[in-house]
Design goal:
Strand content: 15-25%
CATH class of the largest domain: Alpha Beta
Number of domains: 3
CATH superfamily of the largest domain: FAD/NAD(P)-binding domain
CATH architecture of the largest domain: 3-Layer(bba) Sandwich
Number of helices: 13
Number of strands: 21
Structural class: alpha/beta
Radius of gyration: 24 Å
Largest sheet: 7 strands, mixed
């Protein structure tokens, strides 16, 4: 007889959700974690990052206050106080996750789990058996190998810096790079962002990419496209960085945001017959089942859509399917996403080019304007609203917003896109005035009728 009906390797968002739901269905569940319960999102990702984003926005709030009749004394920022407050909140959330597991009756083992075969896991000096095993170990930041790469930090380190760097080079063009460029800029650092391609935020709609790039530059971030790092050397208490094009910088910190890789090394996958792809991600089907019949995987370790809510959804669906007698595959279509850059992005569905390639004839509705909040301060803010429609069905297949509260706006509209509402139904919805979001239901004239 096995020790557990289910054993989960990795106590992040996906693993914890799967463990709790399976236990709620009556399964005997164990889980292990080598770091802190809560995983990347809670401990070193989404949550602390969003707290730092909030902190970074106050510099503009103080600067704009006078336009609204307020007199604000000269502001001073204390990095160490922010980090201490952030750490306190992370400790609280870690405690919440520990309590959730305990209340669900899930047994927690501290240490890295390794598969000995398809039914046995070695963790913390013990060998445990399980009828089914779920791998939810997530991903880890990746830095390419080049001369001096050991001097670069990644996002994990950024949350624990002893002091705010006066000058920082952020390398990368994805959402983490754009977010941290905005964070450090808002806190007063001089920020250079280098990206080896010709536009930031690869994978997003082209107008979204352009608007965010212009917004970052407008806030004083030195964005350098088609630029890569050749070498990093220590110099005068900081770092000398050689870039492509024979350019050279001296900075206090170099932060790499060049992607994450599935955390599958030394897991013993080959011993259990679990297949991975060329990038190291565990291959799974729509029920998160691996090549081993009794082993499953969810979250970033599968490299499907690497978002916390997706991992949670996958974990819940797995538990319902395997222990709740309610089989349900995960539908990865029309998953909304956000970039907490400055300006922020909310997006769901197809971008314009992608939609045209997939559907053929499309209609594009678009509006760009200055956010109402910036009208008194005179700040040159950016707001973009874009709706993409499949012309054959009138179904809205893409919704993209850049500007204040964009993620909050798109979360609601994602329900409409996911459920296939037509543009005529959007048009029949009365907007809330004055809001930016009302623009999405008042767009009437297409700016482009592609293909």
């Amino acid at each position: 007889m096995s020790d557990f009906d289910l054993f989960v390797i990795g106590a992040g968002s996906g693993g914890v959700r799967a463990a709790r739901i399976a236990a709620g269905h009556g399964a005997k569940v164990g889980i292990c974690e080598e770091s802190r319960v809560g995983g990347t999102c809670v401990i070193r990702g989404c949550v602390p990052k969003k707290l730092l984003v909030y902190a970074s926005r106050f510099s503009e709030e103080f600067a704009d206050a006078a336009a609204y009749g307020w007199e604000v004394p000269q502001a001073r920022f204390d990095w160490s106080r922010l980090i201490a407050a952030k750490d306190k909140e992370i400790d609280r959330l870690n405690g919440v996750y520990l309590k959730l597991l305990d209340n669900a009756g899930v047994s927690l083992f501290e240490g890295r789990g390794r598969l000995l075969d398809s039914h046995h896991v070695h963790v913390a000096g013990r060998t445990l058996s399980a009828e089914k095993i779920l791998i939810a170990t997530g991903g880890r930041p990746w830095v390419p190998d080049f001369e001096g790469s050991e001097h670069a930090i990644v996002s994990d380190h950024a949350f624990h810096l002893e002091r705010l760097p006066q000058r920082i080079l952020v390398v990368g063009g994805g959402y983490i790079a754009c977010e941290f460029a905005g964070i450090f800029n808002g806190m007063g650092s001089e920020v250079i962002q280098a990206y080896r391609r010709d536009a930031l935020l690869r994978g997003f709609d082209d107008d979204v990419r352009q608007t965010v790039t212009e917004g970052l530059i407008g806030k004083g971030i030195d964005v350098r496209l088609n630029t890569d790092v050749r070498r990093i050397r220590e110099a005068d208490g900081g770092y000398q960085v050689d870039l492509t094009g024979d350019k050279r910088l001296t900075v206090d910190q170099v932060m790499y945001c060049t992607g994450r890789r599935p955390y599958t090394g030394d897991l013993g996958l080959e011993k259990a017959g679990v297949a991975t792809n060329a990038g190291g991600a565990i291959e799974v089907d729509e029920f998160s089942r691996t090549s081993a019949d009794n082993i499953f995987a969810v979250g970033d370790v599968t490299d499907r859509i690497n978002l916390t809510p997706v991992a949670i959804h996958e974990g819940h669906a797995f538990a319902d399917s395997e222990f709740g007698n309610a089989p349900r595959p995960v539908d990865h279509r029309f998953v909304p996403s956000a970039v907490f850059s400055q300006p922020p992005v909310g997006s769901v569905g197809y971008g314009e080019q992608e939609a045209g390639d997939f559907f053929g004839r499309i209609r594009v509705y678009q509006s760009a304007f200055r956010p109402m909040k910036d009208t008194l301060s005179g700040r040159d803010g950016k707001m973009l609203m874009k709706v993409i429609v499949d012309a054959a069905t009138d179904r809205v297949v893409g919704c993209h917003v850049v500007g204040p509260d964009a993620p909050e706006i798109v979360q609601g509209f994602a329900v409409a896109v996911k459920n296939g509402l037509r543009k005529t139904q959007w048009d029949a919805t009365i907007g809330i005035h004055p809001t930016a979001a009302e623009e999405l239901v008042t767009l009437r004239q297409p700016v482009n009728e592609g293909q």
